[in-house]
């Protein structure tokens, strides 16, 4: 049994939790002393995203625990409860007495997250710093990574994205130097991706690697962050979403809900407002338990914004049958906010319904250093200087759908944006010119990637840069500008 356990540990720490789980199941078929095997199997299953199986394994381990394993399993159970949002119960289970610094670090990691999400973010961050200290003393890289992962998660969830990104990048650098990044970096990479998205540091987000060795559930969510940034820049995120779906092993209701949000963002950016409204309504009507309050808030906000866009759209656009009922429905789904960022998202929801100040909301986003939603709020505000400030940010971020929205608002109100002439073909790199030529032939990103021997993601970046440099809102417009200037 001991040899099988050591083999499984080696596989787990080599970044192969699926192989480790297979080794553990073989050992469990014949082992008498099962608790430690079950404990490690729980860890593997949880990392792989198989939450239901992980919980069953943990309950079996709890029934067999004795001696030092009692505290380890108790903390594991607290970690499970925390992941389900049962913060009060998790906090109580994580209050264990132990001399084992690794177990203590795990307990403090759980306690810190619970304290933060029960409303005391400052205390939670301090507890997570204590968890880092205990993990350093233990010499356990797993617990150190867990502590930093939970710390960056809490910081990001409380709107402290800049600090979260800095700590996450430092930790990833250290893991890379030690050669451990493929094994332990999944959570850190996802938290970093979330913060880079919020901070508008989209080129860094696009360049963030997603190693094959990290668990599929984390890889998928990093890809969704990249897909959202792509959508906000006016590009088609379908390739990234498809890649994310392939990374998920089996049904995952939480991922499906998160995917629906990105699809709604993309639909709205493409002017498919009704599709965005329906996606958001369907998802918040029956959300999975693990969907956070912040994620539900953003779904409601996106649905309310799309509903407002739909009612304002001209032409033969099919309107909502009862826009006021849709508005009431989405507002009724708003959960209690958990932290400063959630509080601003809730204000945005009410502003979309005409019940809050866009100017004040823009300042709140500025304090959180989140440039895109701040620019969006200033666009909705519509004051001349607010529109010009929003335009500068949108141009810098290359957020082309927002640029178009600002243009429409400025024309409607006859507000000059005071832009300089946009640079044209002379600013394109040789590779960007090749991509533009293929765009003119109507090639998809996949077809361009095959022809130029590039990855689809790299082609997407080139297309984004081409559109931004030409000031084009879509691929067809970019091709037209190229024809006009050649």
Quick structural overview:
Helix content is 74%, strand content 0%. It is mainly alpha-helical and 486 residues long.
List the topology elements.
Elements: H1 2-13, H2 17-28, H3 35-47, H4 51-64, H5 68-83, H6 87-93, H7 101-117, H8 121-138, H9 141-157, H10 161-177, H11 181-184, H12 186-199, H13 202-207, H14 216-232, H15 238-247, H16 253-269, H17 273-285, H18 293-312, H19 323-332, H20 340-352, H21 358-367, H22 371-381, H23 384-397, H24 400-413, H25 430-440, H26 445-452, H27 456-470, H28 475-484
Order of helices and strands: HHHHHHHHHHHHHHHHHHHHHHHHHHHH
First-last Cα distance? 73 Å
Number of extended strands: 0
Strand proportion, as a percent range, falls in under 5%
**Radius of gyration in whole Å, from Cα?**
24 Å
- Structural class designation: mainly alpha
Structural description of this entry:
The mean pLDDT is 89. Among the domains are: 251-354; 357-419, no CATH class; 420-484, Arc Repressor Mutant, subunit A (Orthogonal Bundle). The chain has helices at residues 2-13, 17-28, 35-47, 51-64, 68-83, 87-93, 101-117, 121-138, 141-157, 161-177, 181-184, 186-199, 202-207, 216-232, 238-247, 253-269, 273-285, 293-312, 323-332, 340-352, 358-367, 371-381, 384-397, 400-413, 430-440, 445-452, 456-470, 475-484. The protein is globular, with a radius of gyration of 24 Å. The termini are far apart. The longest helix has 20 residues, at 293-312. It is built from 28 helices and no strands. α1 runs antiparallel to α2 (17-28) and α20 packs antiparallel against α21 (358-367). It is 74% helix and 0% strand. It is mainly α.
């Amino acid at each position: 049994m001991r040899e099988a356990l050591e083999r499984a540990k080696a596989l787990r720490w080599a970044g192969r939790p699926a192989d480790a789980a297979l080794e553990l199941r073989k050992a469990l078929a014949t082992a008498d002393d099962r608790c430690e095997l079950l404990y490690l199997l729980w860890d593997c299953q949880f990392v792989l995203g198989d939450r239901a199986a992980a919980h069953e394994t943990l309950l079996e381990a709890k029934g067999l625990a004795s001696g030092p394993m009692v505290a380890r399993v108790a903390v594991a159970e607290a970690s499970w409860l925390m992941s389900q949002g049962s913060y009060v119960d998790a906090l109580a289970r994580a209050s264990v007495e132990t001399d084992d610094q690794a177990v203590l670090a795990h307990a403090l990691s759980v306690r810190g997250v619970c304290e933060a999400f029960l409303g005391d973010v400052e205390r939670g961050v301090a507890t997570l710093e204590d968890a880092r200290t205990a993990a350093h003393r233990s010499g356990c890289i797993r617990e150190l990574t867990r502590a930093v992962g939970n710390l960056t998660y809490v910081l990001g969830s409380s709107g402290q994205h800049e600090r979260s990104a800095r700590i996450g990048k430092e930790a990833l650098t250290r893991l890379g130097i030690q050669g451990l990044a493929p094994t332990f970096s999944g959570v850190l990479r996802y938290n970093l991706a979330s913060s880079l998205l919020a901070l508008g540091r989209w080129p860094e987000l696009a360049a963030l690697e997603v190693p094959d060795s990290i668990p599929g559930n984390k890889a998928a969510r990093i890809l969704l962050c990249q897909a959202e940034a792509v959508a906000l820049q006016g590009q088609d995120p379908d390739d990234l979403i498809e890649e994310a779906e392939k990374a998920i092993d089996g049904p995952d209701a939480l991922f499906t809900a998160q995917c629906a949000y990105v699809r709604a963002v993309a639909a709205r950016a493409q002017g498919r407002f009704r599709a965005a409204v329906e996606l958001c309504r369907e998802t918040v009507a029956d959300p999975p338990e693990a969907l956070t309050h912040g994620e539900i808030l953003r779904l409601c906000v996106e649905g309310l914004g799309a509903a407002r866009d739909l009612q304002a759209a001209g032409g033969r656009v099919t309107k909502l049958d009862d826009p006021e009922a849709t508005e009431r429905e989405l507002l009724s789904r708003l959960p209690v906010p958990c932290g400063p960022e959630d509080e601003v998202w809730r204000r945005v929801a009410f502003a979309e319904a005409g019940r809050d100040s866009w100017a004040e909301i823009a300042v709140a986003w500025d304090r959180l250093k989140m440039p895109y939603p701040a620019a969006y709020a200033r666009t909705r505000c519509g004051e001349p200087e607010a529109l010009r400030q929003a335009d500068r940010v949108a141009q810098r971020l290359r957020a082309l759908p927002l640029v178009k929205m600002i243009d429409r608002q400025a024309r409607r109100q006859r507000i000059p944006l005071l832009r300089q002439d946009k640079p044209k073909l002379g600013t394109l790199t040789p590779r960007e010119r090749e991509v533009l030529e293929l765009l003119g032939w109507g090639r998809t990103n996949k077809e361009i990637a095959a022809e130029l021997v590039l990855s689809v993601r790299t082609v997407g970046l080139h297309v984004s840069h081409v559109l931004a440099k030409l000031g084009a809102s879509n691929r067809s417009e970019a091709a037209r500008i190229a024809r006009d200037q050649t």
